[in-house]
Design a protein that fits this description.
The chain contains no helices and five strands. With 64 residues, the protein is mainly beta.
Amino acid sequence: MSEPRLVCRVCGIVFSERQARINVVDPEEDSKDRLQCPRCGSLQIEPYTFDPEAPMPDLYEEEQ
């Protein structure tokens, strides 16, 4: 079984749980640990669901 993937709602990066940073909201309470985006540090992350029918961006297309 593959490792769960997450996506940042701010910058759009897809990453694994082990790549995420832990943000301790309150050191007194261990239950308040939250995962952060490794790129931008946002707490706005959600599970990534791969949709094989979704259009893929063309990485070779030149921007105008």
